[in-house]
Structures are given as structure tokens and as C-alpha cells.
TrEMBL record:
Stated name of the protein: PadR family transcriptional regulator
A family per Pfam: PadR
InterPro entries from the UniProt entry: Tscrpt_reg_PadR_N, WH-like_DNA-bd_sf, WH_DNA-bd_sf
Superkingdom assignment: Bacteria
Source organism: Williamsia marianensis
Residue span(s) of domain Transcription regulator PadR N-terminal: 19-94
Length: 211
């Protein structure tokens, strides 16, 4: 079995995608990978503690997706092994990225679930909860904005920040939608469970029909 065909059977974890992506840019040693991920704020996609990243590098090397490029020695400091991506690693990375970019993932966000069943709570309680959520969301958006600003000022090219730009747009849209929902509930413009039950219970229907 060739390296390329073997890559078709490998399922990459998020951290493995990040590691292969860095190795595809240029050969790196694991410590440099950790520092680069932190510098680009990409550690939010996967746990990037040195131990977990070194373990991922070892596994990718065992799967022939990474290969040793060189071993660096400097005085009495420990040796640093520099890894480069292999042909199989390039194929595996490409397969994972094309699948993720092309096909929307089937996800089940807890917020959507809560919205679907929010009518189980009282109108005013939901208004209060959404108000709290809006505060947290605005704080998170400010944090993302600051991270993008710092990265841009530090010379990080926009191509490494596309995910942050997407997050900004999605969060802004979600904040606007949630704020509108909160206001409609607060103003009574949105029918809620009590009013709906009052209109649809059999006894009320009978009274309305008799009138």
C-alpha cells in the first residue's frame, strides 16, 4: 500500500489538522508548532498543551504522515527534532480540509435545543436569560475583535485569520437576532405559551364557537 492510499484511511483529529497544516508551511519542531499556534490564536480549535501536541506528532510520524527532516543541536540544550510533511500527510490534510470546507457539518448546538424548548419557561424568565446571554456574547465578540487587532498589528497575514473573520460575522448576526428575539418577547409581540394554550384548549374553543 502506498503512502497516499494509506492516507485515505486516516481520520485526522483537529490537532492533527493543525500540526499537518504547520508542517505543510515549512518543516518545524514541535515546540515551534506550539508557539505558532498560540501566536495565531489557533489553540482554541484543539488542546495544544505541549504534551498533547508531542503525542500527536509522534502518532502522525508513526502513520507516515510526518517524517524527520533534521535534528537540531545547540550546545548543551536538548536535541530538537524537526518534522516535515510527507506525501501521504499532504493527501490526508487535503482530504480533511476539502471535506470540511465543502460539506456543512451536522452539528447540534445546545443553544438551538434551548430555543426549541424555550417556551417551557416563562416569557419574562426567557427575556432575562437572553439579556444575560447577550452580555456574554458581546464580551466574547470584543475579545475576538481584540485578538484580530493584535494579530494584525503583529504582522499576521489575514489568510491565517479567516476563521476569526467568520466568527465575527456569525457572532454579530447572532447578537442581532437574539436581541430582536429578546425585544419581541419583552414587548409582547411574540406569541408565547400561555397565550397559545389559552387560544387552543378545547374549552376555550367551545366557548368561542358558542359565541
Amino acid at each position: 500500500m502506498t503512502q497516499r492510499s494509506a492516507a485515505a484511511d486516516v481520520e485526522l483529529t483537529p490537532l492533527a489538522v493543525l500540526v499537518l497544516g504547520l508542517a505543510a508551511e515549512r518543516p518545524m519542531h514541535p515546540y515551534e508548532m506550539v508557539q505558532t499556534l498560540l501566536e495565531r490564536n489557533e489553540d482554541r480549535f484543539a488542546k495544544t498543551r505541549p504534551g498533547s501536541l508531542y503525542h500527536t506528532v509522534d502518532r502522525l510520524h508513526a502513520q507516515d504522515l510526518l517524517q524527520i527532516n533534521s535534528v537540531q543541536r545547540s550546545g548543551n540544550r536538548p536535541e530538537r527534532t524537526v518534522y516535515a510533511i510527507t506525501e501521504a500527510g499532504t493527501s490526508a490534510l487535503r482530504r480533511s480540509l476539502t471535506a470540511m470546507l465543502r460539506t456543512p457539518a451536522v452539528e447540534y448546538p445546545s443553544f438551538y435545543l434551548a430555543l426549541a424548548e424555550a417556551h417551557s419557561l416563562g416569557r419574562h424568565e426567557v427575556v432575562g436569560l437572553l439579556t444575560e446571554r447577550l452580555g456574554a456574547m458581546r464580551g466574547e465578540l470584543e475579545s475576538v475583535n481584540r485578538s484580530v487587532e493584535v494579530a494584525s498589528e503583529g504582522g499576521i497575514p489575514e489568510m491565517f485569520l479567516l476563521d476569526a473573520g467568520c466568527r465575527q460575522a456569525v457572532m454579530q448576526a447572532e447578537i442581532a437576532w437574539t436581541e430582536s428575539l429578546r425585544d419581541r418577547l419583552e414587548n409582547g409581540d411574540l406569541l408565547w405559551i400561555e397565550e397559545w394554550l389559552a387560544r387552543t384548549t378545547p374549552s376555550n374553543r367551545t366557548e368561542e364557537d358558542s359565541e
